[in-house]
Design a protein that fits this description.
Layout: H1 3-8, H2 10-24, E1 32-39, H3 43-51, E2 58-65, E3 68-81, E4 84-92, E5 104-111, H4 119-129, E6 141-145, E7 159-163, E8 170-174, H5 178-183
Parallel strand pairs: 1-4, 5-8
Antiparallel strand pairs: 1-5, 2-3, 3-4, 6-7, 7-8
Length: 185
């Protein structure tokens, strides 16, 4: 995959993201669009994408998370699409012995701030913000997760993930931007 392919895929990506947020009445206006994540099947594809990024893009992190390297790339110029402004890309190497049914754009992450440092409080804050209960997501894949980071300088960024089973794209919310997490180190 090349950066130009990613840009070409944005229309379908955002169409499905907006369909899901509209179905669930999840207004993301005013939230920071933190980054877009990708899934690629081979190391060669990861390297090809990184090599095709705009000049002066910056590697913010190449940490090992879940046993594989995940690049966080700050783009020289954010991706701008229909009111969204995306400053970073998350480009993970594929998990060993794992085949991905789809490749390319995989998820979008929004920052829904929360000052609590309690693990279970972020999920409660998310549900409260949107006046929802877990039952409201019963037709969707809904998960609250605490990513396991292997670099002791990094802290986990609690995440609420939502995916319409009919869509190949996922929507994630977390309390801090990836740049804020990385700048704390």
């Amino acid at each position: 995959m090349k950066y130009s392919n990613l840009i070409e895929d944005l229309g379908n990506f955002f169409k499905e993201i907006e369909e899901t947020t509209n179905q669930l009445n999840l207004n993301t206006d005013g939230l920071v669009t933190d980054h877009i994540g990708l899934k690629l099947s081979t190391a060669k594809q990861v390297e090809s994408l990184i090599d095709s990024l705009p000049e002066n893009s910056e590697v913010l992190s190449d940490s090992v998370v879940g046993g594989r390297i995940i690049y966080i790339i700050k783009l020289k110029e954010p991706i701008r699409y229909k009111g969204y402004e995306i400053p970073c890309l998350e480009i993970p190497y594929p998990k060993p012995d794992h085949n991905y049914p789809m490749e390319g754009l995989q998820h979008i992450e929004f920052v829904l701030p929360n000052t609590t440092h309690q693990t279970n409080e972020y999920e409660k804050a998310f549900l409260y913000h949107y006046n929802k209960t877990k039952k409201d997501f019963k037709k969707f894949n809904y998960e609250f997760e605490i990513p396991q980071v292997e670099d002791p300088r990094e802290e986990p960024n609690y995440t609420v993930s939502i995916q319409d089973p009919e869509s190949k794209y996922e929507i994630k919310f977390h309390p801090k931007s990836i740049e804020d997490i990385l700048n704390r180190n």
